[in-house]
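Re: beginner question about structure tokens

> Can someone show what the tokenized structure looks like for a real chain? I only ever see the sequence side.

Sure, here's an example I had lying around. Input first:
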Amino acid sequence: MSEPSTSSPSPRRRSWLMTLPLVAFAALAALFWFRLGNSDPSRIPSALIGHPAPQTALPPLAGLTNSGVQVPGLDPAVFKGKVSVVNVWASWCVPCHDEAPLLTELGRDKRLQLIGINYKDAADNARRFLGRYGNPFGIVGVDDNGRASIEWGVYGVPETFIVGREGTIVYKMVGPVTPANIDTVLMVEIDKALKAGS
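And the corresponding structure tokens:
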């Protein structure tokens, strides 16, 4: 009586099976690169577009004054009736230093209000940062534990949001405001928000 033969895979088939995970990984990596890595990060969609701005109140940055008066923290009621540009920033964030002079200039535009959310920062460092570049913000809320930024859907600092007169988020920019995008992207979206509410 002959025993049943147990055949093992041939060496060629075994080597092909071993390379299959590597091929699958390479295909996925290529897909992610072409869909995400090769695109403009400022175009990452936000689930909050078209929804009310988060109703999270934030305390003021201690010791930050304007003409001897404490700069207020973030009260969500300020979003009603005025176009707002909300910038999430930190003194330890390198791109935040790059965008600061542009935000200082934008803060002179009296058609809108510029609001800062200071993200996980030391108060002394945040005040020094604003002292160095000039404080463009009429309101600075402190998000010391990052909870408010989660509610805003922040991927990482800096990020900038435009909130329309109705208190609804109408645009989100991921990454810094730059000379290349301030006029071609951010101001275009601000102008749309200003026209929408007039």
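Each token stands for a local structural state, so reading them left to right follows the chain. The beta strands are 65-66, 69-70, 83-89, 112-119, 139-143, 159-163, 169-174.
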